[in-house]
Amino acid sequence: MFSDWMTIMDKKLILTLLTVLTLFFTHYASAKTMKSHHKKSGLNCADCHISKTFEAAPMEQCLTCHELPQKKQDYHGAPDKHDSPHYGVELECENCHAEHETSENFCNNCHEFEFNVP
């Protein structure tokens, strides 16, 4: 009887440990890759994620490498995408640009512009 109880407890303990280890390693294995141009520049996660919890990088961190576009026309003669008539230049970079996912054109939530967002 005692050996049956230990077997059940052993199985529960092993199952619990496996679950905890799986959750732990899944969290670290799920780290997403960065865009190729950032990788080629030699950046690593801590260059953008300055908090110890690896939250989304603040816009100020983006601006340590990228300048705010100050132009009013791009090379195709189209209005500057970075100077919105609705938000000015205050819109956060992450509204359009995503490092670990597909970037999206935030303006197209209301409009139908055709430009590529890197």
TrEMBL record:
SUPFAM superfamilies: Multiheme cytochromes (SSF48695). Pfam families: Cytochrom_c3_2. Residues 37-112 form the Tetrahaem cytochrome domain. InterPro entries: Multihaem_cyt_sf, Tetrahaem_cytochrome. GO terms for molecular function: metal ion binding. Keywords: Electron transport, Heme, Iron, Metal-binding, Periplasm, Transport. Its main location: periplasm. It comes from the Bacteria. One of its GO terms (cellular component) is periplasmic space. Its cofactor is heme c. It is found in: Periplasm. This is Tetraheme cytochrome c. It comes from Shewanella frigidimarina (strain NCIMB 400).
